[in-house]
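Why does this matter for the project? Reviewers at the last site visit asked to see concrete outputs rather than summary tables. In response, this paragraph embeds two records directly. Each consists of the residue sequence and, immediately after it, the corresponding structure tokens. Nothing has been edited or filtered.
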Amino acid sequence: MSLLNVGVIGVGYLGRFHAQKYAQLPDVNLVGVFDVDKARAASVAAECDCDAFADSAALIAAVDALSIATNTPSHYELAGSCLAENRHVFVEKPIAETSTEAGKLADIAAQNQLKLQVGHIERFNPALTAAREYMRDVRFIECHRLAAFKHRGADVDVVLDLMIHDLDIILSIIDAQPVQVSAMGLPVLTDKVDIANARIEFDNGAVANVTASRVSTGPQRKLRVFQAHQYMGVDFGDVSVQRVTRSASWDGTDEPLELSELNYDKGDALRAEVESFVAAIRENQPVVVSGRDGQRVLELAETILDRMAHNSR
């Protein structure tokens, strides 16, 4: 098997991990990294035994595929440059600042028959993977994603910073179109929305309620799924699934409910994500989270932000 030459643009918190994962994979050659912070690029390059490139264009020219882990406003230009040079792209979430930009990137990838994967890492959480096996006709989803404030990600609203993870998961579970959205959000520490809640109704009757906060005292990443005769709770942090299932018809006396609690090895979701990107390229298979997925979740996020803006007037 020939080597797949890869690079990483942006080696801050997430990009450094991308470089580490590529460096660990067999038959993958991490050619180099680029970052506007030259000292940081040099440090990661030394750690991963690759080159620190002086500019992104030179790195793009030297590889077959790239990860882009820069700040969100730069995603569109950088990903577009990579795709224009016929390079496969893994871009961290959100794929771009707007759904229009996301659609253009997806169009270029499709026209050039390139892989464009978006870094919605929770899709690779072992608990969610296990819970999907039991999802049949989901009618209601409730999500809570709470975190303490961090400067990383504060360049965008909490909807694009944290809530977008759950919006992507919801759209991957409910096979229907959103038809009604109500939302509210408030700034707390920044001049952007730091706490947000949205209710999303779908054309098949399913409903999702989503809450996100980046000014909480403790972390919480939970998904609750309701369907006929079953409730499931997915804890992304503990990597566990709780299922409550009706085992028989209820006659008004005993409660015919079965409880199962399953815990999973935390694993390495980012490595699984990177491996899936590499496999999609090698085997010419669809990526797990596509550019179209990234576009669709941004369209929903924009609707939520629009409803918030309307309610704050």
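We now turn to the second protein, recorded in exactly the same manner.
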Amino acid sequence: MADSGFQARVAAITELTGEIRCLALERVDGAPLPAFTPGAHIDLHLGVGLVRQYSLCNGPDVHAQYLVAVKREPQSRGGSEAVHRLEVGATLHVSGPRNHFPLAASADEHLLLAGGIGVTPLLSMARHLRADGKPFRLEYFTRGPQHAAFAEELEGPGWRRHVVLRYGMETQLLQAHLEALLDATAPSTHVYICGPAPFMQLAIEIASRSRPREAVHYEYFAADPDAQAGPRTSFLVRCAKSGRDLEVAEGESIVDVLVRNGIRVEVMCEQGVCGTCLTGVLEGRPDHRDAFLTDEERAAGDRMLVCCSRSYDPVLVLDL
């Protein structure tokens, strides 16, 4: 069942950098906000058909508001531009929170690696870990001080033993630094990674050398462009519950075809990031093009994100 959500008011806006702003959101009806865990995100409904997911930055001391920080993206698909047009007092619909990027309860120590705006879910984690007195380290990489959101807070005395801000590291230097950092970190330490895709791919590859897959956690903000650029041949989707066969042409997605034929599937990001459209696969091999499923989940082949993924086989049978 879809999350009905609630109406929220923009209570305050803080310009963190020239391109990043933090919104404080409160419920219009004054009711308590739904509880969440660090790493969670909410959906902002910014216009007709325009829904975007943003990570919560809150620490455990902030209960009456949701805090989200949003970077104005030059190649915005409409979401960040809409957020940067909002003013204090504006109202919008909010749904969630949901968490696909939680802290590992079993971990003794945590290493948080943030690139750019990817600091947002990791900041919430850091705030909770610090309040709980849990061992952690946050390394925050940006192009320069002028691009570092929350820098004033993170450079404060209460954070100095936990946080390092690093500026302008070129790829070669970044790789060497991450290799040295992960080599010096206990293999039992869980690693959390969020940021631009090239940063994440490098950090995930290096972290995975020294620890099991379940100790490396990450969340993408957008699907891998390389995955989306693969072949787009047509195929047939068979809906097992309704018994309908629907052709998916080269230039359309499975979701496009389902919706056009009156088969309801909940969709949010349409990039294979949020996991909302996760659907069971009964037969056929999914061509996974998302940034949500783990390697193990992809290999199992029993679920797929129908907003972006396709099929290797001529017929794909879905649990719809």
